[in-house]
Each structure stands twice: as C-alpha cells, then as structure tokens.
Amino acid sequence: MARLPRLYFPGCAQHVIQRGNNRSACFFDESDYKAYLSFLKEAAEKYSVAIHAFVLMTNHVHLLVTPADAEGVSRMMQSLGRKYVQYVNFTYRRTGTLWEGRYKSTLVDANHYLLTVYRYIELNPVRAAMVDHAANYPWSSFQGNGLGKPVQLLTPHALYQQLGATEDTRQRAYRALFRGRMAERDLTDIRTAINSAWVLGNDRFKAQIEAHLGRRVEPKARGGDRKSEAFRESRGQ
C-alpha cells in the first residue's frame, strides 16, 4: 500500500520526532549534539523551515517547526539525516543506518496545543529523570526560550511572542508555564497524535484540515456519542 502524503497546512506548525534505530543511541559525545544542531540550522535555513523548539535526547530528537511549503520539513529532515549519519559513521568508524525509518510528524493546532507542545518537548529530559528542571539540560531550546541564551537556529512562534512585550517578560511568562507537571491528558493527546501521524487539535481544527486536504486526519470514532456535551467538552469545543 502506498504511503499517504505527509500532512501539511500553510502556516501550521508541526511536531516532528525521529528515533535512533531500535531505540539505540544517536548521540555519543558533546561534539555530536553540536554537530547535529549545526546541520539542523543549515538545513532549516536552506529549506525555509522555522525551528521553534527542540530537544536532543540520547536516542531521539523532537522538533517543533513551521515550514514555508509542503516539502520543507521532508527536505530538511532528509538533508539533516544524511549529513548527520555521514558525520557519525566517519567519526566512530561505523557503517549502516542510524535512524529508525522515517521521521514521524503531526500538525499542531496552535490555538489549543502549541505552547503545550513547546513544554512537552523541552520537558523530555525531566520526564526521563535526566535533570530536575528543563533549565538544567543543555541540549534543548529552553536555553533560548526560557533563559534567553543565544540559540541562533530558533525562530519564535507568533504565540510565543505574544507572551510579553519584551524578551525579558516573554521569558518570565514562558518559565511560568513550566511550574508543575503536565496534565496526563495532554501527554496522551500529544503522544497519540505523533505516534499515529494524526492531527493534534480540537474538532474544529481537524475539520478545517480535513476540508483543506480532502482526507481523514484522525481515526474513526469507536462508539460513544460524538455530539454529546461530554464528548464536545473532552475535545475542547
């Protein structure tokens, strides 16, 4: 069966994840993280993809991006993957694949989920018990988004910019989002969407994407009254 084209909607952010083959490590030394970020910046600029958030874990990568066109993310990931694999194979005198097949991606409903996905991505090291706060992990965009350190490859999303009138007020408001734990429902919604390559958003957003693309963007419902008040509330309508 032919693969469906990846979901794309003009101006819509995407959550992207790529894992190491068999969940194996893809970063082995500090220099590897630096090389990956350098290749990411180069590819993002070449293919006009704005990078809003990222985290480089030992065996996988998360990105929050907005491409300028339908091919931007796939071209960026292809170029990035090729260069980084060549770098790793040369550096460590290895051969073969590094990544676990194709990267996964999903469209993100900015009005309901964008800042939640920012948090999800940058809190990965905390959930993995690698650090006790996102600020203590050096290989994520929290260094720029939350602490104001220069991270040249970052492009703030419009909703991030609306957190405050100045860089300092934006960063303080952003750090405030990281107090406490993420809701389990948010974690489940994000993981389900990215692992299944469905859209992350409420029903209105999904209907808009379906109308634009002419295809389903979520699995068919299994039981339950989709028009019930409880159902609408659970979908954020």
UniProtKB/TrEMBL annotation:
Organism (species): Simiduia aestuariiviva
GO BP: DNA transposition
Protein name stated in the entry: Putative transposase
Signal sequence, renumbered to the chain: none
Residue ranges, annotated region (Disordered): 216-237
UniProt cross-references to Gene3D superfamilies, sorted A to Z: Transposase IS200-like (3.30.70.1290)
InterPro entries: Transposase_17 (IPR002686), Transposase_17_sf (IPR036515)
A GO MF label: DNA binding
